[in-house]
Amino acid sequence: MAVAEFQLPETGLPDGPLGDELLHDEAIERVLAAVRGHLGLEIAFVSRYVAGGQRELTHVHTDLDLPMGPGFREPVENSYCWHILEGRLPELIQDPADFPFTRTLAITDMLPLGCHLNVPLRLSDGSVWGSFCALGREADRTLGQRDLNVVRAFAGLVAERIEQSVAGKMELAAARSRVEEMLDGHAVTIFHQPIHCLSTGEPVGVECLARFPNTTKRGPDAWFEDAKKAGLGVELEMAAVRNAIDTLNHVPDGAYAAVNVSPATILSGVLEKELEGIETSKLVVEVTEHQNVQDYATLSRALERLKGKVRIAIDDVGTGYSGLRHIVDLKPDILKMDMSLTRDVDRDPARRALTGALVQLARDIGCKLVAEGIETFEECHAMAVLGVNYGQGYYFARPLPVVAAQQHMLGYRDQDRTPDRGEHATRGMPAESDQPQLRSTGE
C-alpha cells in the first residue's frame, strides 16, 4: 500500500489543553451524533495530533462506558488514525481481520474493534490537524464507499469549525506578539492636538494621542483593540501614558495635557501608582468609555483619589455608555462632547438643542465643555454662540508632533510674530457677543 502524503501544521503541534470554546462546541457534538445515527455505529470521535508524538481525543460521542474520553492521550503509533494517515491502513475497514497489521494494535482486541471509518481533518493550508472517526465493535461488510463519503462530508464540517477556532487563536497570538513589542514604550509616539478657547481663540491645552508603526495600515484604535483582546489593554495604555507624561515639558505654562485612560486602567490602580512623585499640575486624565462600566461607585472612588493630583475629563459625552447621572457622580472637571454632536451643528436644530443642554449641565456642575471634531468656521461659531467653552479639531490643528504643537500654541501667545500659515490661514473665533472675531493661525 502506498504511503500517503501529508503535512502537520507548520506552526508546530500544540501541547496545551484544547480551548473551551472548541472543546464544548455543540456543533461538533451534533455532527458526531449525526454520523453515528446515519451509519448505525457505536462510537464517533474527533482527535488531534499534539506535541510529543501523541494523539489526543478531543470529542467523543458514544453510549458505551469507555475507558477513555476527551483529553485522553496516547502515542500516535497506538492508533489506527496515525497508520491510516501514513498509508499502512485504508480509511474504510469493514473487518480488521482483513489486515494483518491490525493485530499489532492493542485497541483491536481491547474494544474489540469491528469496523472502522477514518479520514484526516485537514485545514485550508493542507496541514493535518487530526482525524475524524466512526467505528463499531462488530465487523460490517455492508459499509462501502458511499458511507466513507458521508464520513468525509461530516469531517469537512468539523474541519470548518476547527479552522475558525485555530484562526482565532492564531490571530490572538499575532495580536499579542504585536502588542508586546510596543510595551517598552519606544515604538509608541505621542502627538499633541491643540484645544482652543472658543471665545478668545487662545490655546488652552492639548490631547495626547498615541501613534504606532504603520499607522496608515493599522490605526491606534486597532492597536488598543488588539491589546484588549490579548489581555494587555492596561499595559499598552500605560506605555502610552508614560510617553505622554514625558512630553509635559513641551506644554506651555497654564495649558493642560489630556491623556486617554480607560476605566479598566483606572480601576487597576496602576495609573495611581505611576503618578506618585510626578509633577502633574498640567495633567488631565481623560476617561474613555468604549464599553459599559459595571461599577460607577468604585470608579468614582478611584477618580476621587486621583483628583488630588490631576484633573478629570469624561470623553464621548452624549454618545457613550454613561448616563448624565453617572457623569455627575464622577465629578469631572471637563466634559468632552463626541464629535458626532459637532458635525453640522450649525445646520441641525437637534444637535444644537442637545449641545445647549450639555452647556447647562456643565455650568450646573462647574466644569468646562469641549467640543471635539470642529472642522469648519460655521461649527466653531455655532458652538461658541451656544456657550461651549473649548474646541478641538482640524479647524484649529491636526494632531501634531510635540514640538510642532508647542510652536503652534506659543505662536498664538506671541503678539509680535505672525503664526505660520497652514491649511486654513484665517480662522474665525466667535466672540461672546455672537460676532466672529477673526484670527490668523497656523498648524
Structure explained in plain terms:
The chain is α/β, with parallel strands linked by helices and 443 residues long. The protein folds into two domains: 20-173, 2-Layer Sandwich (Beta-Lactamase), CATH 3.30.450; 183-440, EAL domain (TIM Barrel, Alpha-Beta Barrel). It has helices spanning 20-23, 26-39, 80-85, 107-110, 145-182, 220-229, 233-245, 263-268, 270-274, 296-306, 324-330, 339-342, 349-365, 377-386, 402-413; strands at 43-50, 54-62, 73-75, 92-93, 115-122, 128-136, 189-197, 203-211, 256-261, 283-287, 311-317, 334-337, 368-371, 390-392, 400-401, 426-430, 436-440. α5 crosses α6. It is elongated and about 95 Å long. 39% of the residues are buried. The model is unreliable at 1-5, 415-428 and 430-443 (pLDDT under 50).
Keywords for this entry:
Beta-Lactamase, TIM Barrel, 17 strands, disordered C terminus, alpha/beta, eight-stranded mixed barrel, 443 residues, elongated
Structural class call reads alpha/beta
**Total DSSP E strands:** 17
Number of domains: 2
- Oligomer category: single chain
Largest sheet report: 8 strands, mixed, barrel
Average pLDDT score = 85
Distance between the termini: 75 Å
- What is the CATH C level class of the largest domain, in words? Alpha Beta
Give the amount of beta strand, in percent.
15-25%
**Poorly predicted spans:** 1-5, 415-428, 430-443
| Main β-sheet, spatial strand arrangement | 7-8-9-10-11-12-13-14
Short summary:
By secondary structure, this protein is α/β, with parallel strands linked by helices. It has helices at about 20-25, 25-40, 80-85, 105-110, 145-180, 220-230, 235-245, 265-270, 270-275, 295-305, 325-330, 340, 350-365, 375-385, 400-415, and strands at about 45-50, 55-60, 75, 90-95, 115-120, 130-135, 190-195, 205-210, 255-260, 285, 310-315, 335, 370, 390, 400, 425-430, 435-440.
